[in-house]
Amino acid sequence: MSRTPTRIAAASAGALAMLFAAALPASAHVTIKDPVQATVGSYPTLTFVVPNEREAASTQKLQIILPSDAASKLPNVLAKRVPGWKHTIKKEGGGGIGEGVVSVTWVARTSATSIHAGEFEEFKLTVGRIPDTEKIYFDAVQTYSNGEVVRWDQRPTAEDPHPAHPAPALKVVPAADASTSATQTMALAGSTTPGNESGNSFAGTPALASASAAAFLAGAGALMWKRRRSQRDDVVTSLNS
């Protein structure tokens, strides 16, 4: 007895649902957004996005561990308060505000303010001064209401470019790259100086545009005067004849 199209469609939908459910936890990592990259020497505000990956438990605690290696160390870190959560800043040395921060931990004040299934929360840190390196990794420790602890601290390698629990990462770009990008943006907007690479001869300063307009009007005026004089001479010649 052959299967009907309805039964085949139902079986296919079930298989796809199981595949999606299996893939979902692997994609819902603790990540950094806005920005995903920062310029050397800057002080960006980083947003750590924390999704809840458990159906029967909520996220009650998050710890962000700052990089300790010399190439990625950040001398100044400030934390933003999250409504319904309390945070603790751990420091080692450094007398000034924001100096010597090694980790920041947020804890939900109540079960109602924790991150439940199908939800996410954002945690913000202002960090700097961004050092001259290629990428900065932060370790994240996520604790659930059932006591489960998940560490997001794995770095990609040649053997494993996509680890199961990758550490949140921030790409670093040189200041020269950012300056070049801004110059290119201005060129596309027609805001460069005369002789630019945009190919628009009138994309320079207002003075250049005014001079071009004046030259055009002068030429048009001279042409009209010449035509009127020619017409007047024709009339005089006609009368004399």
Automatic annotation (TrEMBL):
Signal peptide (UniProt feature, chain positions): 1-28
Parts forming coiled coils: none
TM stretches of this protein: 207-225
Domain YncI copper-binding: 29-172
Keywords: Membrane, Signal, Transmembrane, Transmembrane helix
Name of the protein in its database record: YcnI family protein
